[in-house]
């Protein structure tokens, strides 16, 4: 039975979905909101972030598990502007997207200089 007064909400709400991505590309979808995605491709992965998929306050956490960097493409405005640039700093780097609107996100974490 869930407590109506819990600061964490109903059971499971305080847990991240953990996703392993072995491919060289991934297009983020609405179901990725609040997820922790582990990228395991040794050659890296290009993550496509499109407009209108997420809402203000949504976030996605990503980790570069393998040697290949995480980079971005798509129509959403990312700050810093990292589209088509390898941005995860090194193997083991963790980065996050936090959406301020449906069309824009801040990128933070272990970022590599472009």
What does this structure look like?
The chain is an all-beta fold. The chain has one domain: Jelly Rolls (Sandwich), CATH 2.60.120. Helix content is 0%, strand content 39%. The chain has no helices and 9 strands. The chain has strands at residues 17-21, 25-27, 35-39, 45-48, 59-64, 70-73, 77-79, 94-101, 104-109. The chain has a 6-stranded mixed β-sheet with strand order 1-3-5-8-9-7, with no helix packed on it. Strand 8 (94-101) and strand 9 (104-109) form a beta hairpin. It starts with 16 loop residues before the first strand and ends in a 5-residue tail after the last strand.
Topology diagram in text:
Elements: E1 17-21, E2 25-27, E3 35-39, E4 45-48, E5 59-64, E6 70-73, E7 77-79, E8 94-101, E9 104-109
Parallel strand pairs: 1-3, 2-4, 3-5, 4-6, 7-9
Antiparallel strand pairs: 5-8, 8-9
Quick summary of this structure?
The protein is mainly beta and about 110 residues long. About 0% of the residues lie in helices and about 40% in strands.
Structural class: mainly beta
The CATH class designation is Mainly Beta
> Spans with pLDDT under 50 lasting ≥5 residues?
none
Strand content: 35-45%
Q: What Rg is obtained from the alpha carbons, in whole angstroms?
A: 15 Å
Separation of the first and last Cα atoms = 50 Å
Could you spell the SSE succession in H and E letters?
A: EEEEEEEEE
Under CATH, the topology is which?
A: Jelly Rolls
> Helical content, roughly?
under 10%
Which second-level CATH architecture applies? Sandwich
Read across the widest sheet, the strand sequence of neighbours is: 1-3-5-8-9-7
**In total, how many beta strands?**
9
Q: Quote the average pLDDT.
A: 88
The helix count comes to: 0
Principal-axes shape call = globular
Largest sheet: 6 strands, mixed
């Amino acid at each position: 039975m869930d407590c109506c007064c819990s600061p964490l909400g109903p059971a499971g709400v305080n847990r991240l979905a953990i996703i392993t991505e072995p491919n060289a590309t991934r297009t983020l979808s609405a179901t990725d909101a609040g997820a922790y995605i582990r990228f395991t491709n040794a050659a890296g992965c290009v993550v496509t972030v499109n407009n209108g998929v997420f809402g203000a306050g949504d976030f996605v956490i990503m980790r570069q598990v393998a040697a290949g960097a995480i980079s971005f493409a798509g129509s959403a405005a990312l700050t810093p502007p990292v589209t088509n640039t390898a941005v995860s700093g090194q193997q083991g780097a963790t980065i996050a997207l936090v959406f301020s609107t449906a069309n824009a996100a801040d990128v933070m974490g272990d970022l590599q200089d472009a």
